[in-house]
């Protein structure tokens, strides 16, 4: 009969636990997926290879801009309520600057009423909302010709107040951008709004037009040869730059600083992410156990993918530097074999000492 039955039982339990969970930061891939149950597994194992990198880069290069955005061509500016107009009638200063030359130009501007109408001497009240500047010029010229011989009329907007673009999210100047007579491109609008580099998710720019949402990878489209410069903004558009506070990459395991890292751009690579986490631990990390776990938030409907990189391979640095991350990825760096054994021993012996102390106490009570 075993002298210390409690000690034997405790040691057996610890050894069983070690076999199942591998002490230390170690991913037991055999428990995640097996060849016999691949169809029912929760994950799919994929090796990070040059072929995989080439396939993903081909998909990224094929990224396109939705055709409706490229098909839109800006139109001439249309007058709207609250716009301020400066109407010039050449050789007739009493109509152009009725307050006198000493007044500033803005004081002589005529503001379109909320109902879209405008009053002008000898012309009367005119419904100008919806007109182009040229159309309004023709109307004023025609009506003034009843009083003035061959009137020369010019119309300009001094304040654009009726049409706006809404910008929100990770912009320094979130709010409204006025639409004027210039042909404003999406790139110009982003430049005027100024990206908040610390908070922006550059892969997640959203343009909403007529109730339709278009998602654009701003960083990739501006970094590659694309037609993003041919997208023109339209009055009423909503432009939103995603925030990175809810989209992160989680780095775990044998790294210097395991923590969540804000996801800034689709061009963040595995090398960059591990570098931000202060790299693999030189004393405890396993070069063969670098994993990227993707899709864990959708396990109820689809498998997660576990990408494995053999960091001991000569090409590992190149592959890691080309493997692009996605939001909510989990990067896991496993422990080396000796580290797992040392941790097992450190966990086993304190537990065994406690069990042994309990067994000796039991013997003492029995008078052994």
UniProtKB/TrEMBL annotation:
Segments traversing the membrane? none
Q: Which PROSITE patterns match?
A: PROKAR_LIPOPROTEIN
Question: How does the record say this protein sits in the membrane?
Answer: Multi-pass membrane protein
Q: Which residues form the SLBB domain?
A: 163-240, 248-333
Q: Which GO terms describe its molecular function?
A: polysaccharide transmembrane transporter activity; porin activity
InterPro entries, per database record: Poly_export (IPR049712), Poly_export_N (IPR003715), SLBB_dom (IPR054765), Wza_C (IPR040716)
Q: Where in the cell is it found?
A: Cell outer membrane
Q: Which UniProt keywords apply?
A: Cell outer membrane, Ion transport, Lipoprotein, Membrane, Palmitate, Polysaccharide transport, Porin, Signal, Sugar transport, Transmembrane, Transmembrane beta strand, Transport
Q: State the Gene3D superfamilies in the record.
A: Outer membrane lipoprotein wza domain like (3.10.560.10), wza like domain (3.30.1950.10)
Gene Ontology process terms (BP): monoatomic ion transport
One GO cellular component term of this record is: pore complex
Q: What residue stretches are annotated with the Outer-membrane lipoprotein Wza C-terminal domain? A: 336-357
Q: Which domain of life is it from?
A: Bacteria
Q: From which residue to which does the signal peptide run?
A: 1-26
Q: Which residues form the Polysaccharide export protein N-terminal domain?
A: 73-158
Short name of one Pfam family for this protein?
Poly_export
The family classification in the record reads: Belongs to the BexD/CtrA/VexA family.
User: What is the name attached to this protein's record?
Assistant: Capsular biosynthesis protein
Could you tell me which species this protein originates from?
Answer: Halopseudomonas laoshanensis
């Amino acid at each position: 009969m075993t002298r210390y039955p409690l000690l034997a039982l405790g040691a057996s339990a610890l050894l069983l636990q070690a076999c199942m969970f591998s002490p230390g930061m170690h991913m037991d891939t055999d428990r995640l997926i097996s060849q016999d149950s691949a169809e029912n597994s929760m994950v799919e194992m994929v090796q990070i290879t040059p072929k995989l990198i080439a396939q993903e880069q081909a998909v990224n290069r094929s990224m396109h801009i939705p055709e409706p955005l490229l098909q839109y061509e800006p139109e001439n500016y249309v007058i709207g309520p609250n716009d301020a107009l400066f109407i010039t009638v050449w050789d007739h200063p009493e109509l152009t600057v009725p307050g006198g030359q000493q007044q500033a130009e803005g004081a002589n501007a005529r503001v379109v009423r909320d109902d879209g109408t405008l009053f002008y001497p000898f012309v009367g009240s005119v419904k100008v909302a919806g007109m182009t500047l040229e159309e309004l010029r023709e109307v004023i010229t025609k009506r003034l010709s009843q009083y003035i011989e061959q009137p020369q009329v010019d119309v300009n907007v001094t304040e654009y107040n009726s049409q706006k673009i809404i910008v929100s999210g990770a912009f320094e100047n979130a709010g409204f951008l006025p639409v004027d007579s210039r042909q404003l491109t999406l790139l110009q609008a982003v430049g005027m709004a100024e990206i908040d580099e610390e908070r922006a998710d550059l892969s997640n720019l959203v343009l909403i037009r007529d109730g339709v949402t278009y998602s654009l990878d701003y960083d990739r489209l501006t970094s590659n040869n694309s037609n993003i410069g041919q997208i023109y903004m339209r009055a009423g558009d909503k432009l939103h730059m995603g925030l990175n506070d809810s989209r992160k990459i989680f780095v775990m395991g044998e790294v210097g600083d395991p923590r969540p890292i804000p996801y800034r751009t689709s061009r963040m690579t595995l090398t960059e992410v591990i570098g931000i986490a202060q790299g693999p631990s030189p004393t405890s990390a396993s070069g063969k156990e670098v994993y990227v776990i993707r899709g864990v938030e959708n396990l109820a409907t689809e498998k997660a993918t576990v990408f494995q990189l053999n960091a001991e391979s000569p090409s590992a640095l190149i592959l890691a530097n080309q493997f692009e991350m996605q939001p909510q990825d989990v990067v896991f760096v496993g422990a080396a074999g000796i580290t797992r054994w040392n941790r097992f021993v450190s966990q086993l012996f304190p537990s065994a000492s406690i069990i042994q102390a309990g067994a000796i106490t039991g013997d003492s009570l029995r008078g052994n």
